[in-house]
Amino acid sequence: MKKLFDLISWVRGLTGGQQGAYANKLIADAGGEEKFLEMAEAYLRGDVKVVFQDIVRKLIDASGRGIPISGMKGKVVDANRSFYIIQPKLDFGERLARLREFYPKDAKFVSAAEFEERCGVAIERVKGDKQVSNLLNGQCFPFVIPQLSGDLGQLLDDTIVPALSRSYSAQFPRRSFNNYRHNELAQQVTVIPGTRQDRLVEAMAKGPVCGVYFPALQGFGISADREFVGYLPDYLILSGLEVPVVATAYPEIIGRDFNTPGLDMASLQWQSAEYSLYCEARGGGFSFGRRSLGARACYAGGLSVLG
Questions:
Q1: pLDDT tens, position by position, 144-189
Q2: Which among 74, 163, 206, 233 counts the fewest CB atoms within 10 Å?
Q3: 172: how many CB neighbours lie within 10 A of its CB?
Q4: 235, 126 Cβ separation under 8 angstroms
Q5: What distance in Å separates the CA atoms of residue 219 and residue 212, rounded to the nearest whole number?
Q6: Are 241 and 268 in contact (CB under 8 A)?
């Protein structure tokens, strides 16, 4: 019977550098040369066995939710699973058309094909990263932000929140939309350092931004959101401006009903670091406003990957 794998031939096929690297790693993992020789002899006698263990630290659990890091100062509570988000069908053309409909006519977007391609790159990046690939077990929302620049509060007040209001009202004409911070945003909204949201802001000033948003931090307080992102791979950013854009593209999902989690814009502060912004569905309407930093079981911070 033909052998499926010849270990000796495989080892001989390695370069000298590769063989040395394997040997050095085995010795280091054993605890030094003497311990390695001792364990090797015990292995040949059958007294011990070799166990291969995946040592990649998972940062996202099997449901797609962030795993709080031991020692974090920010508060995290269990997610209230009565509040949940439905995964939408990923129809890039339809979602892009929705955004075009409710943003100003001269807003600069990408084509549907480019939107899908760039988001596909972002999804593949997450899929290939064992630390965070479980994000894809939760809900994901491809989004595109048109080219925008200027004061963040003014952009929210003049462009981003009005587009959300128009989209939500078109989807639910019998419900109300409440912007509780109308005319209170200009010069009042800034990015919290370390949240990486500044990369999105810088990118959208140069052209349309595509990405994928994951509402993965339900039950995390906003302080915990801001702390947790520092443990994540560098390409993941804490969500902010993209949250109302996602709600504009997916109003039937994000604005569904009372049992839809509120979505925190945790990378942004309003007036001071003690307040942030959020979007929230309620039974009779939808709200955009500010909130304090405490952990709430029915609110979710989010993470985004730019494509």
A1: 999 999 999 999 999 999 999 999 999 999 999 999 999 999 999 9
A2: 206
A3: 19
A4: no
A5: 21
A6: yes
Could you report the per-residue pLDDT of 68-123, keeping only the tens digit for each? 999 999 999 999 999 999 999 999 999 999 999 999 999 999 999 999 999 999 99
**How many angstroms separate the CA atoms of 215 and 130, rounded?**
19
| pTM of this structure | 0.84
Structure tokens at 8: 């000796």
- What's the CA gap between 89 and 32, in Å, rounded? 54
Rounded to whole angstroms, how far apart are CA atoms 4 and 272? 64
